[in-house]
Amino acid sequence: MRERGDLHGGRVGLGAPPTVSERLLPEVLRRFHLNYPDLELRFHEGSTSMLMGLLDSGEIEMAVVTLPITQRGLVLTELFRERLVLIVEPAHRLATCAEVTIGDLAEERFLLYSPGGYVRDATLRACREAGFLPKVALDSGSMELLLRMAEAGLGIAIVPPLALKGDEELVVIELAAPHLDRTMALVARDGRALTPAAQRLHSFLIAELRRPGGRVHTNAPRVVLGAVLSRAAMPCTTTHASGQTV
After folding, report:
1. Does residue 27 sit in the same domain as residue 46?
2. Integer angstrom CA distances of residue 39 from 61, 63, 109, 145
3. How many domains are contained in the chain?
4. 5-44: pLDDT as tens digits
5. Counting beta carbons within 10 angstroms of the beta carbon of residue 99, is it exposed (0 to 12), middle (13 to 18) or buried (19 or more)?
6. Could you say which of 118, 162, 191, 227 would form a disulfide bridge with 19 (CB–CB 3.0 to 4.6 Å)?
7. What is the pLDDT of residue 190?
């Protein structure tokens, strides 16, 4: 008869970006550990580019990453999609807007997250396509710092809903089309056979994180902590330097 350790043990390496690591994986991995207490998990947090390097070197067997991925030879399973949102302090001029365009943000101070990361690159690309270069007030690898700076009124930020814990005094505003979405996927190396331990984790993560049709895993509330709950969302108006409202 096979021992329990043979059936449920082993070692496996997993990687994921910070927002997924902090908001989704603790509870998912807790349940996984309850099912497979003898399995040794090695976890790495980092950007998609860093995780792809670890995957290529064999240090991890799989990773949750942001698409698109340019590398070939991968087994890829799309998990879910998130629509990026704008966050501002409650006293901000845009706080009563239900929706804004990227062009509405041309005169704002931007708080940018994670150099080399998808959200930062998507934000900069959207600004360029709207015809301006953003004024950068913060460039940080700490999402917590970015949120605190936004709360303090030191700038605005475009973030994935997963970045919000729900206890921030911030207003969440939708971005008008063309929307900024990020798609998360679980990737492993094609042609590199997964160990039984890795196969168990791979199947478990897909079952826990995949959303039919790629829908978002979580929806951010418009107002976090109710700081401006009494305000009705209104169509957005912006004021040019001349004072003309459009």
Report:
1. yes
2. 14, 17, 47, 34
3. 2
4. 445 668 999 999 998 999 999 999 999 999 999 999 999 9
5. middle
6. 162
7. 86
Report yes or no: 185 and 17 within 8 Å, Cβ to Cβ.
Answer: no
Q: What is the CATH number of the domain that holds 193?
A: 3.40.190.10
Is position 226 within any domain? Answer: no
How far is CA 180 from its chain centroid? 12
Whether 57 and 104 map to the same domain: the answer is no
Q: What percent of the chain has pLDDT over 70?
A: 82
Give the DSSP letter of residue 31. H
Please, are residues 92 and 153 in contact by the beta-carbon 8 Å criterion?
A: yes
Lowest mean pLDDT among 123-127, 128-132, 203-207, 214-218: 214-218
Domain containing 110: what range?
A: 82-175
pTM for the structure as a whole: 0.81
d(CA 98, CA 84): 14
Same domain (yes/no): 10, 59: yes
